[in-house]
Design brief:
CATH class of the largest domain: Mainly Alpha
Helix content: 40-55%
Number of domains: 2
CATH architecture of the largest domain: Orthogonal Bundle
Structural class: mainly alpha
Number of strands: 3
CATH superfamily of the largest domain: Citrate Synthase, domain 1
Strand order of the largest sheet: 1-2-3
Strand content: under 5%
Shape: globular
Distance between the termini: 29 Å
Largest sheet: 3 strands, antiparallel
Oligomer: single chain
Number of helices: 18
CATH topology of the largest domain: Citrate Synthase, domain 1
């Protein structure tokens, strides 16, 4: 056997010895599901109603989905607040200015909206910090490119540690410097990671464009991602709005909670952000918009009349019956752990999706998505005997938006990461400023204590 690589079939499903080990893992790892009820385990850190267990405090953002009436929580339209500002108001207030993701990043990190001078200075800082280290693209991104761009980004983030003259210091000035540098560099790490994948794995021409300092984050993403570097003002505006809506969503979502957990150990910024990327990569978290896009293509192929609510309902029932699409029984993009009647991010993004669909001549696809949203909420609630309808979440429209923007599916979750790092860094700083204890929840042992058996006596 090669010293550097295990033989390919060592871990093959046809290898009998390996399969025995798999069986051991399955038996050893299984826990009686009734024990979770017996010990009142808050699985997923949620109570029996699905509400998250309170594990921390934050001033960065707030998510509301209920109104209190006579002491009772009544489901209401959802609202999302950044540093106390309603996101709907923030986006509506930007009408006279085209691109505002950078302004939202300032708000999240520093806790207040900037004046024009502060914003100009901040944009200049990001523009300067955007440049990657000398030969980083050649020596890091182009070497061993990953088919999954999220893994490529993790590798790049961890390697940036080696280029930092002061990587481990966790005082706020140093962490803020590192945070702003990562926020600025994330679009290039994602786009260049994709270009490397496209070249080495898909045999396409390699196109590397440098960002322009005078362009916004959304403009530079489209410019560096597209082969011709061209885009319309509306395309850049819609992507800017999508970045804002994905930038932050409270401290309890999995990747941001990961930021808190890892930061509480006192580790460096690069390790914390790489861990958050690993969390966001998961299909239960950041990968959901890709599943929506794939589901939509499947529905378009199998529903002949996109205007027929009955035909659409029949096919959605097939999906719920696990007889269509991927066999999971899930209508992706529907339902949310917090929101009840509506997800404000989906409501806002739907509005911009319609504008873009009009420009692209894709209104038939938009109306199909709109019809599915209207039918699926009640259908899922009825089938699962829920006490209320479920609403579309932001993933329901983000995949459609990214598709209209000609963003390849491999980049869907990295785009999410480009936005969410603003929130991650804000929460990391908040965790460090408040000098919290290391996060360590309890796990109860439910196995058995046994006596040691010498190896000659084991079966």
């Amino acid at each position: 056997m090669n010293n550097e690589h295990l033989e390919l079939d060592t871990f093959s499903e046809t290898n009998e010895k390996f399969n025995r080990l798999v069986g051991c893992c399955m038996r050893s790892g299984h826990i009686d599901q009734n024990l979770y009820l017996e010990y009142d385990v808050k699985r997923g850190l949620r109570d029996s109603s699905g509400k998250g267990v309170l594990t921390g405090l934050t001033e960065i953002s707030d998510v509301t989905a209920y109104e209190t009436v006579e002491g009772r929580n009544i489901p209401s339209d959802g609202h999302l607040y950044f540093q106390g500002y309603n996101v709907e108001d923030l986006i509506n207030g930007f009408k006279e200015r085209k691109f505002k993701f950078e302004e939202i990043t300032y708000l999240l990190v520093f806790g207040a909206l900037p004046n024009q001078t502060q914003l100009n200075d901040f944009i200049q800082i990001l523009s300067t910090a955007r440049e990657l280290p000398n030969k980083f693209v050649r020596d890091v991104i182009m070497k061993a490119p990953s088919a999954n761009i999220m893994n490529a980004m993790q590798k790049s983030v961890l390697t940036l540690y080696s280029y930092d003259p002061n990587p481990d210091e966790t005082d706020i000035p140093n962490v803020l410097r590192q945070s702003l540098e990562l926020i600025a560099k994330f679009p290039l790490l994602a786009v260049y990671g994709y270009q490397a994948h496209r070249h080495y794995h898909l045999d396409k021409s390699l196109v590397i464009r440098y960002p322009k300092p005078e362009l916004s984050t959304s403009e530079n993403i489209l410019r560096t991602l597209r082969p011709d570097g061209q885009y319309t003002e509306l395309e850049a505006k819609v992507l800017d709005v999508a970045l804002i809506l994905h930038a932050e969503h409270g401290g309890g979502n999995n990747s941001t909670f990961t930021t808190h957990v890892v930061s509480s150990t006192g580790t460096d910024t690069y390790s914390a952000i790489a861990a958050s990327l690993g969390s966001l990569k998961g299909p239960r978290h950041g990968g959901a918009n890709l599943k929506v896009a794939q589901m939509m293509e499947n529905i378009k192929e199998n529903v002949s009349d996109w205007t027929s609510e009955q035909e659409i309902t029949d096919y959605l029932n097939k999906i719920l019956d696990k007889k269509a699409f991927d066999g999971t029984g899930l209508i992706y993009g529907m339902g949310h752990a917090v929101y009840t009647l509506s997800d404000p991010r989906a409501t806002i993004l739907k509005r911009y999706a319609k504008l873009l669909a009009e420009e692209k001549g894709l209104m038939d696809e938009f109306y199909l998505l709109d019809t599915i949203e209207k039918i699926a909420g009640n259908l899922v609630a009825t089938r699962r005997k829920l006490f209320k309808e479920i609403c579309a979440n932001v993933d329901f429209y983000s995949g459609f938006v990214y598709t209209m923007l000609d963003i390849p599916q491999e980049m869907f979750t990295p785009i999410f990461a480009i936005a969410r790092i603003s929130g991650w860094c804000s929460h990391r700083i908040e965790e460090l400023v408040n000098s919290g204890k290391i996060i360590r929840p309890a796990y109860k042992y439910v196995g058995h204590h046994v006596d040691y058996i010498d190896i000659e006596e084991r079966k």
